[in-house]
Amino acid sequence: MFKWKENFSCNIEEIDKQHQKLFQIGNDIYKLVTSKDDRDHYDEIMAIIRELEEYTVYHFNYEEELMSKYGYNELEEHKNQHTLFVDKIKEIQTEDIDLRQKKVAMDTLMFVADWIENHILKSDHKYNEFLNDKGVY
Ligand SMILES: [Fe+2]
Ligand SMILES: [Fe+2]
């Protein structure tokens, strides 16, 4: 489902690595959502959403520190987008996952897909030239 392509690259090695890790988490969610067995996936779904939250917070902090260090002027706006994503992941975890496992996992998946398309390809790609100019690769 989430296949890394060159056009996702921000031309900054560590950022690309972190984005690839987010793709991997997205793929793990996809596997859970599309599994055909009747087993209960509650624990796995909870674990993966928690992993998504933790890794996202780590990644966002990393980006924000980098942008702040080099005085990127759209930092505040970018930060606001990050905050919305983290709030959404927290909100997902308060839903009644046990009863609606597949639906919640599917919502999470759609959310990650949208994020990759809209946030990485638009907002993250805005800072890459700025940081490359500062010598960050
Ligand atoms: Fe990012
Ligand atoms: Fe970002």
Concise description?
The chain is 75% helix and 0% strand.
Fold and architecture overview:
- By secondary structure, this protein is mainly α.
- It has one domain: Four Helix Bundle (Hemerythrin (Met), subunit A) (Up-down Bundle).
- The chain is built from four helices and no strands.
- Helix 2 runs parallel beside helix 4.
- It is elongated and about 50 Å long.
- The two termini are 27 Å apart.
- It binds fe (ii) ion (2 copies).
- Residues 63, 78, 82, 119, 123-124 line the site of one fe (ii) ion.
Poorly predicted regions:
none
Q: Indicate the radius of gyration in whole angstroms.
A: 16 Å
> How large a portion of the residues is in β-strands, by DSSP E?
under 5%
Small molecules in complex = fe (ii) ion
Q: Could you say how many structural domains there are in total?
A: 1
Please, how many helices? Answer: 4
Quickly give the CATH architecture.
Up-down Bundle
Oligomer: single chain
What would the CATH topology be?
Answer: Four Helix Bundle (Hemerythrin (Met), subunit A)
Q: How is the biggest beta sheet arranged?
A: none
Q: In CATH's first tier, which class applies? A: Mainly Alpha
Family: Belongs to the hemerythrin family.
Organism: Senegalia massiliensis
Keywords: Iron, Metal-binding
Protein name: Bacteriohemerythrin
Q: Secondary structure elements and their pairing?
A:
Elements: H1 13-34, H2 42-69, H3 75-94, H4 101-133
Organism: Senegalia massiliensis
Family: Belongs to the hemerythrin family.
GO molecular function: metal ion binding
